[in-house]
Description:
By secondary structure, the protein is of the alpha+beta class. The chain is 72% helix and 15% strand. It has helices at residues 22-45, 51-94; strands spanning 4-10, 13-19. A two-stranded antiparallel sheet has the order 1-2. The longest helix has 44 residues, at 51-94. The radius of gyration is 21 Å and the shape is elongated.
Amino acid sequence: MTKLKVNVVIAGRTYPLSVNDTEEEEGMRKAAKNINELIAEFEQNYAVADKQDVLAMSALQFASKLEIISMKKAVQENEALQKIQELNDLLDAQL
């Protein structure tokens, strides 16, 4: 499989990447755009002296969102499994 070469710019620096397909390329570009928007927001709203600080704050923001989504998904999966077990118990009782 041929890899696509992509350049994304984050915080004014260009990063060359290789991706598998156009869908992955689009995801990388959207992610870079979101990171840059968050960096601009942090720089505008906080007195940040160093790019490293806004990059760390951005990473924490995205990582925390991902963790929250993951935790919610785990709860939903657990609830779904409980409901399936309840339905199985009802079916077993009827058979």
